[in-house]
Amino acid sequence: MKKVFISVGMNGRYECDVAKDISRAYENIHKMFSDCETVDNWCCQGPEYAGRLWYLGEAIKKLGDCDACYFVKGWQNHKGCVAEYEICKLYGIEIIEES
Fold it and tell me: Deepest in the core among 27, 33, 41, 64, taking most CB within 10 A?
């Protein structure tokens, strides 16, 4: 079974818009792969002191267990997504970009 991480920009966006993007990504991924598990960092609740890099670290931990990463349209405008993209290139994780 293929495991796919969803990379979606969150900073500066409304929660409802991020949720819509993740929902669309789930649909697209399951159309592409009949047998897969999808992973995202949306529900990750950190400690009170957690900042952006803490959340990026948690995302990278999840990404490390995945076979592929699906980048939601507009990912290039978000630093965390750009970091995830570079990690995928460095570690040979399959990259899927939403068109």
Answer: 41
CA angle, corner 95, sides to 94 and 96, nearest 5? 120
**Cα separation of 33 and 50, whole Å?**
34
Q: Which residues pair with 4 in a beta bridge?
A: 38, 68
- The pLDDT score that the predictor gives to residue 11 is 87
Cα torsion through 45, 28, 75, 52, rounded to 10? 10
Q: Which is nearest to 43 in space by CA: 58, 33, 28, 29?
A: 58
Kindly report, residue by residue over 51-74, the tens digit of the pLDDT: 889 889 999 999 999 999 999 999
> What sections of 1-99 are H helices per DSSP?
15-32, 52-63, 79-91
Query: What contacts 5, CB < 8 A, 6 or more positions away?
Result: 38, 39, 40, 59, 62, 63, 66, 68, 69, 70, 84
Residue type at position 30:
H
